[in-house]
Amino acid sequence: MNSRAYAKRFLPGFESRLLVRRIVNLPRDVFESVTGRRDPLIPPHGLWFVGGEGDYKAVNEEYMRYFVDFAGLQAHHRVLDVGCGIGVMAARLTKFLNAEGSYAGFDIVRVGVDWAQRNIGSRFPNFSFVHADLFNKHYNPKGKLLPGIFRFPYQDGTFDFAFLKSVFTHLLQDSVPQYLREVRRVLKPPGCCLATAFILNEESTKLIAEGRSSIALVHELDGCRVADPMFPESIVGIPEALFKKWCAEAGLSVRLPIHYGSWCGRKDGLSYQDILILAPSA
Question: Domains (ranges, CATH) in the chain?
Fold first, then answer.
């Protein structure tokens, strides 16, 4: 069990853990604010409830390459960010999208959405952020909406490109098919979607069994696997055949090749998580 898993047991409430982080980082955040050392589009250290703060710049550039090279993202496109968090990827996209393009993001953590709207949306009128009060035992245990029936707050065929960066890694079996259906609904053909996941196939399950994976996805749950049965949404792995089946049922096809990641101990992984490009079926 890693330190994050222990922290969840000691402080099971997400808000309490975030409060501790904000208190610990308060001196640093005040200093950087007063001295002007913090990028105004990047949240203070105390608000980073998502991982990757130390290398976010490199990760942003990495994913911008994938958006352009794998998904054909262009500066005038309308972009949807499902699970936008605190707007870190949005901050990078402000330097890419032009006045004809637009960005819309939603997330289940209100504090992140509010910060992004105040600090990014207020500066860029073609960028908007919306809170979705979805239930998630890990991030939003008081959420009133069920992800398995949630309808994205956008009209049909609105977007040229959508991305779900580390979203399917936190959704359970009853939610993934609905999210895929909604992605298909809001995409305007020939638009496409980039999604990351922990895909379970013969290779990754073998590496997990051999103890080479950085994530112990060993607990079976409704056809998928989780690392922590007490907080199952923390990390979820989805069988490849099941994910492809859900995509097909949603009217999406998985473009080959799948760009498998290194999370499971794979030596030639492109990134850390597996990357899939989804497109409306013909």
Answer: 51-280 (3.40.50.150)
C-alpha span between 182 and 177 (Å, rounded): 9
For 254, phi and psi rounded to 5 degrees? Answer: -95, 115
| Integer Cα distance of 92 and 84 in angstroms | 12
Q: E strands along the chain, which residues?
A: 78-82, 102-107, 127-131, 159-164, 187-197, 199-200, 219-221, 224-226, 236-239, 252-259, 274-280
Q: How many residues does the chain have?
A: 282
Q: How far apart are CA 183 and CA 252, in angstroms?
A: 9
pLDDT along the chain (282 residues), means of 10: 49 73 90 88 88 88 98 98 96 98 96 96 98 87 91 98 97 96 97 98 98 97 94 94 98 98 98 98 84
Question: Contact 258/274 with Cβ under 8 angstroms?
Answer: yes
Compute how many other C-beta atoms are within 10 angstroms of the C-beta atom of residue 270.
17
Q: How far apart are CA 207 and CA 204, in angstroms?
A: 5
Q: Which of 259, 104, 252 is nearest to 183 (CA)?
A: 252
Asked if omega into 190 is within 30° of 0 (cis), the reply is yes
What residue has token string 């409704």? 222
By the 8 A CB rule, do 240 and 200 touch? yes
